[in-house]
Every structure is written in structure tokens, then in C-alpha cells.
């Protein structure tokens, strides 16, 4: 059965992929994970199903996260994953191929941009456009970025934290660091190994971050039962971990994000800095939901911080909305040659 395709916005994230279809909104949100049979090179599962396999695969199966630190680390697998998600969204056979906008972190190099464009074209786009993450996040957070008014966006994803000052539809000052949600998880794994002699998996670390993690101490300590493997005995163990321990584990990562925000503010022209001081900083992305991070950045900068509504889907929504203004955003969106 042949179908008509609609234009698509994709937030191609390190942790998850979100797909926005014009007229339908966000239609897909799945982890950026692919499970592959190493012997045959066949894809066994993509997204949610593949994520369940992370850390639990037999020798011949590998569960891969093809994006690392906000950029494509495994090109072929990224292309296959994109193909799968695009097919899942619009079907396999189109009369017209869709135009696709993909969102990339503000710090990506030309080579990395090219890799995203090629993978998307290979996956079936008629034309691929790129939009920088902070611009998409700002549009998704409902800001009117076309005005001569300074806005600061802090988008904390899985692989990168993007800090940007936006005015008149463009980025004036920005910084992108490879410290975000994934580094929080790694810090928790390291902490558990050092302090408790326990090895935990990535998924457990993420659960701990979401349930008891924090950038500063809570009024009331919360705890979680954590399962792992004792490094000395090699046996499975259960221990109770408290939220104040997580503050200690995450301190260094959280501080580098606060430093990045501070350094962008230092480089911001005074008029725009005054606008930001009036309106506050907007935080988006899943990593921005870390308990108390808004509070910590606000304390460090003296500027109020607001976490955007639906912080995780903000970038995808903004990418989708940008489909309506491709002509207006031509300066920020890099066009690519279409492929046959
Ligand atoms: N409530 C929460 N508290 C803390 N972290 C969270 C919460 N919810 C999600 N996260 C984290 O947010 C991160 C994913 O965020 P998001 O989906 O915005 O990233 P991404 O767009 O895939 O990554 P990137 O933009 O770096 O490519 C993950 O590290 C996830 O563990």
C-alpha cells in the first residue's frame, strides 16, 4: 500500500529519538538503542525493545547506542535506526518522500553535520535540513525568538548540554559541553564502585538518578533499594542508598554545567544579559529534570531558572514547528542536496 508522506521533525538524541509529524504532533518517542546479531549483522530490535536488552545480551547479540556525546559514533547503525523510525512513522512506500528536519547540538562539526544529513537522506528523506538544538528548544518552549530580545536556553540532554543566548532568531553566544545525563549515570556507577564496592549497570544508575539523584540536598532524604554485584565476593547484593550520596556523586558533573552557563553569561552582550536577568533562564531536555538543578544554576547566576513544560519533548516540538517556517529560518537551517 502506498501512502502520502508528511514532513517530519526528528530530535536525534543520544538517549532518545522523538519524531514529530506535521499535523499529528509527536508520534514516536523511543530510546536510541539498536540490538544487532553480530554473526549475521541483522538488526534484531530497535528502540524500547532493544533497550530492554542492554546489558542482558548473550555473546552474539550486541545492544548498541549509535550516538555518543550528542554525535553519531556508529554511522551505519544510526542510518539503520533512522530508517526504522522513519518507516515506522510514515510507512515503507511513499508516493512523495518526506522533507525531514533533524536537530543537532550547537557544537557539532561540519563533518558530523554531513554524517547526519547523509544518514537521513539514506533513510529516505527527499531533503534533509538541520536545526541547532537550542533554537529548536526555544521554539518548543514557546519563546518568540524572532524579536530583538535576549533569551537563554540551557538544554541538558543525554550526551550534551547546550547553553545558548538567542536573539533575532539566531544564536549570539553559545557553549556545548559533553556533560549531561549520561555522564550523571557514569558518575553514579563510579561512586557506587568506589564507595560501596558495588558494580551496577547503566539502567540501575539511571533509575537512581531519576528517583534519588539531585544537584543539591533535599529537605528530606529519600532512599532507594539498589541491586548490584559485590566486587569482592562477586555475588549479587542489595543496599539502600540515600539522596545525599547522589549529590556527592553528581557534584563534579553538575558544577561543569553551572560553569558552562556562567561562561556564556560572561560573554553575553550587556543588553541581552539584562533581558535574560529580567526573563530568567529556560531549561529544557531530560537532564534538566535532575532534582534541584534549576535551583543550583539560579543560585550560581543570581537569575531565576524555569524548567520548560514537557522539557523532554521541547526540542522535538520546536523542530516540528520549524517545519512551518523553513523559509524564515533559512539562515539557521543548513540545506542539503537531495538524493535520488
Ligand atoms: N526525571 C529525570 N531526572 C533526571 N534525569 C532525567 C529525568 N528524565 C530523563 N532524564 C535523563 O535525561 C536524559 C535524556 O534527555 P533527552 O531525551 O532530552 O536527551 P537527548 O535529546 O536524547 O540527548 P542529546 O540532546 O544529548 O542528544 C537521559 O540521560 C535521562 O536519564
Sum this structure up briefly:
The protein folds into three domains: 8-135 and 316-335, ATPase, nucleotide binding domain (Nucleotidyltransferase, domain 5, 2-Layer Sandwich), CATH 3.30.420.40; 142-179 and 254-312, Nucleotidyltransferase, domain 5 (2-Layer Sandwich), CATH 3.30.420.40; 181-249, Actin, Chain A, domain 4 (Alpha-Beta Complex).
Task: Write a structural description.
The protein is α+β, with helices and mostly antiparallel strands and 340 residues long. The chain has three domains: 148 residues, Nucleotidyltransferase, domain 5 (2-Layer Sandwich); 97 residues, 2-Layer Sandwich (Nucleotidyltransferase, domain 5), CATH 3.30.420.40; 69 residues, Actin, Chain A, domain 4, CATH 3.90.640.10. Helices cover 36% and strands 28% of the residues. The chain has a six-stranded mixed beta sheet with strand order 3-2-1-9-10-19, sandwiched between helices. Strand 4 and strand 5 form a beta hairpin. Helix 7 crosses helix 9. The relative contact order is 0.16. Bound molecules: adenosine-5'-triphosphate (ATP). Adenosine-5'-triphosphate binds next to helix 5 and helix 6. Forms polymers. Belongs to the FtsA/MreB family. It comes from Anaerovirgula multivorans. Pfam families: MreB_Mbl.
Amino acid at each position: 500500500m502506498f501512502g502520502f508522506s508528511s514532513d517530519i521533525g526528528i530530535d536525534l538524541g543520544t538517549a532518545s529519538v522523538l519524531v514529530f509529524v506535521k499535523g499529528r504532533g509527536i508520534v514516536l518517542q523511543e530510546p536510541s538503542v539498536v540490538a544487532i546479531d553480530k554473526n549475521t549483522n541483522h538488526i534484531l530490535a530497535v528502540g524500547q525493545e532493544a533497550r530492554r536488552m542492554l546489558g542482558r545480551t548473550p555473546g552474539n547479540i550486541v545492544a548498541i547506542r549509535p550516538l555518543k556525546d550528542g554525535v553519531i559514533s556508529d554511522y551505519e547503525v544510526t542510518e539503520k535506526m533512522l530508517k526504522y523510525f522513519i518507516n515506522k512513522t510514515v510507512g515503507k512506500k511513499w508516493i512523495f518522500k518526506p522533507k525531514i528536519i533533524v536537530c543537532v547540538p550547537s557544537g557539532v562539526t561540519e563533518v558530523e553535520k554531513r554524517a547526519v544529513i547523509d544518514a537521513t537522506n539514506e533513510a529516505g528523506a527527499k531533503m534533509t535540513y538541520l536545526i541547532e538544538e537550542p533554537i529548536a528548544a526555544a521554539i518548543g518552549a514557546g519563546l518568540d525568538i524572532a524579536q530583538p530580545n535576549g533569551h537563554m536556553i540551557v538544554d541538558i540532554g543525554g550526551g550534551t548540554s547546550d547553553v545558548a543566548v538567542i536573539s533575532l532568531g539566531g544564536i549570539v553566544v553559545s557553549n556545548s559541553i559533553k556533560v549531561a545525563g549520561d555522564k550523571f549515570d557514569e558518575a553514579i556507577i563510579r561512586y557506587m564502585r568506589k564507595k560501596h564496592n558495588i558494580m551496577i549497570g547503566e539502567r540501575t544508575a539511571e533509575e537512581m538518578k531519576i528517583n534519588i539523584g539531585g544537584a543539591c540536598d533535599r529537605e528530606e532524604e529519600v532512599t532507594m533499594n539498589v541491586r548490584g554485584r559485590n566486587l569482592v565476593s562477586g555475588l549479587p547484593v542489595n543496599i539502600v542508598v540515600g539522596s545525599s550520596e547522589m549529590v556527592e556523586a553528581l557534584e563534579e558533573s553538575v558544577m561543569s554545567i553551572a560553569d558552562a552557563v556562567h561562561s556564556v553569561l560572561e560573554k553575553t552582550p550587556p543588553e541581552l544579559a539584562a533581558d535574560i536577568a529580567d526573563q530568567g533562564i529556560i531549561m529544557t531536555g531530560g537532564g534538566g529534570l535532575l532534582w534541584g538543578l534549576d535551583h543550583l544554576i539560579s543560585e550560581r547566576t543570581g537569575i531565576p531558572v524555569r524548567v520548560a513544560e514537557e522539557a523532554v519533548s521541547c526540542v522535538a516540538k520546536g523542530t516540528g514547528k520549524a517545519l512551518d517556517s523553513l523559509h524564515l529560518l533559512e539562515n539557521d537551517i543548513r540545506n542539503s542536496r537531495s538524493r535520488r
